[in-house]
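User: Modeling request: complex.
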Amino acid sequence: MSTKFVWNNPRESGAEYSTESENVEEYLETIYRITEKGGRPTTTAIAGELGVSAPSVSEMLRKLDNKGYLRYEPYGGAVLTAKGKAIGKTVLRKHRLMERFLIAIGISKNKVHNEACRLEHAVSKDLESAIKKEIGETRANSKGMVSLADMKPGQKGEVVSIDSGELAKRRLEDMGLTPGAEISVSRTAPLGGPVEIRVRGSSLAIGRGMAQKIYLKVDG
Amino acid sequence: MTKIRTKKTDSANRRASYFAGCEKPGVFSGSAKSGGPGGPGEAGTSKKLRFALAGNANVGKSVIFNYLTKLHQHIGNWPGKTVERAEGTFHFKGYEIDVIDLPGIYSISTYSIEEEVTREYIAKEKPDVLINVVDASVLERNLFLTLQLMEFEIPMVVVLNQTDMAEKKGIFIDYEELTKALGIPVIPAVAVRGTGIYEVVEETIGVCLNKRKPVKIVYGKEIENSIGKIEKMVKKDASLKGLPARWKAIKLLEEDAEVAGSMDKETVAAARKISRNIETIHDHSCPTAMACEKYAAVGNIARRVQKATIVDSPVSSRFADLLLHRIWGYPIMAGITALIFISLFSFGNFLSRLMEKHLLHFVDAFRSIAGSGVLAGTLAGFMEGMVAAVTVVVPYILPFYLILGLLEDSGYLARMAFLMDSAMHKIGLHGKAFIPMIMGFGCNVPACLGCRVMETKRERMLAIFVTSMIPCAAVTAVVLGLVAKYVSLWWAIGLYAIDLLIIFALGKIAFRVLPGESVGLIMEIPDMRVPQFRTTVREAWYKMKDFVFVAFPIIIASAVVINLMKALGMLAPLSGALYPVTVLWLGLPAVAGIAFVFGIIRKELTLIMLASLFGTAKLAAVMTPVQMLVFTLVTMLYIPCAATIAALVKETGWKKAGFITVFKIFFAILVGGIFMRILLIFM
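Assistant: Request completed. Predicted assembly structure:
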């Protein structure tokens, strides 16, 4: 998806640096993430995620409403506009990319989130594609991480992380796909169909879209 | 009752007494009031107990349930939820035992409606004992649920089912060792053959009487510390009474939204702080860390009790491989689907026509005798509604439930979903929706009911929305009888294409608009096996009965209302009232409005009424091709028939069913009018 919004351009060129817009990005990202998970971005939910007080959240939401990034109803929560959604989505994408990048260069997993939160705002389009080229969009990266969707029948691997929404992630974990679990690919359906794997003695079918978000360490 | 496992009883002996009991009502019967040969201590008095069967999907819970309760069962819905609730009663050694068959689940979270229901039942209605049915060949994954059930701290037994299948695969389980590990009785069984069920009931009653609770499964040190800390806080919190503090603490660590929502805010915030700490130690989010811990505990137990040898893959598994083959899988599936479709609907049509012919005869005879008074009209409407209801439910619904049950039970449904997943994604659904959708071409009613195979609310809603728009056999009859006959076959095919395109587009839009996360396909592929015919038949029968209660009143009421309107002479004013829509906007003859109204009872009535209102079967003389095309397209889209509305009500509730119905009426009118204007340019 092309994401052209005038507002983001000054920083992309590196000419200006504004904490104001960083804050805006952080909010839009958070709201987008909550909505993506299927939750309702209420003031309390956002405050909890960002670790700030509820009154300051409502103040910020009102500001964002004025700027047309979202519609804010006191007590009802926030609904992103198309403009706000585009920014939220882009920032979240950059966040996830940075997380993967940081893991790839050996940063400890529990520090990755906070680091990525800071870095995501500074990633320009060029840098984004350069990093993607380096660690691979879905291809194996330097650490041998590969997405389930790219594995061949007969291949074995160990689950490292699941990069999907919360609901699907919990479901997969409940079915036995916890980090560290050994799996083997039994077969893949043609034309972008699902992948069948064996995990903990059972057979699971996982849609290709979801399989792309499951990362594994492949031996050999 | 004697203590559990104090002595090893001679199992052959027991089985003999079980079979004896099975013949004579009394020991093990669904009908006798009080016990036969007498249970130790409790002879004569009828004490009540409540058993709840819980376990993963496809582990044989329903088989055990059917074995125990025979004909004394009731299948309905959980209040407010579209999940089956199967309950039954049986008598055993002087006990009157109520059994509830909880839906098949993989975890106690709130991923699916089934999980919500199970959790609510155990928490609120507190059965005397949980019977956890476990598939012996997938021990580790099954024990994941066992562990969570144990945390409810309710007396429990584990049934190690399908041990024969497991042994064929080279998996042997030391069930006595497993009993030690879990601290609850573990009974091996082969439910399909009835082996071990007597022992299960005996042990279960024993556990009930002892009120013996499962042991505590101990997690890693830092997790236990955290649980302990939160437990202390939780104990001060009065919310969620009746649930163990440890359970609540664990759920808070799992960041369970429902539990967190019903606890004090301070408790939740404090728990969150502790879970952050776990996150730093484990390097994963706390819910993930908890799942890891559970699987680690379960894996340890499984390794201790399970001996697996590698055996050659049997012929049956090679056959199963063929069913999923990248190339051969598809023709086989197409063949099976076609066979089901043709047999279901040719049989259904045949039976439906046959019944309709004879029954409508009866209605006509009644009409000619009773005349056209208000009372007679109402009665005739009632009878007509009965006919409509009976001719849908018996010929289509019962066989459909039967076939769907067999497909599910044999394991083939999961394989179809696997093969069709990528195609179904194009319309925003996933593989599991394939069968309901295909069935929709025959009749929308079983299609809607079949959407229960979808697990999350969002997916179920989507599937129902799409399948209820598929042109059914009755609509096809109108297309063929009007457009193919008087316009051209190409236009008939064209209309189909337009309709499918519209469904495709609306499906896509609904996929975007409906709130919630889309999870796609995450599904277990069970082993292929010979389905349990008796269980499936019984389930189909009870499900149909359940549908009858919802559907009949709606179908009959709509027929009565429409016929009453006719008897009261309200049809002419009605067609007048519809004039702006039918004539001005859609460009149809005024009588079309009445035909549409009658189409609510059955869609093919639109065509029949049109002929009877015009007073001629030669519709080409009274309608232009454009009118015919518009009329047919609107018939395809405008409203689900009464039986489908009934199915929608049953599956989604009045509000959503009403919304879908009203939406479709307006949508059909809108599309019909636009279609007419486009056609007029060319024709």
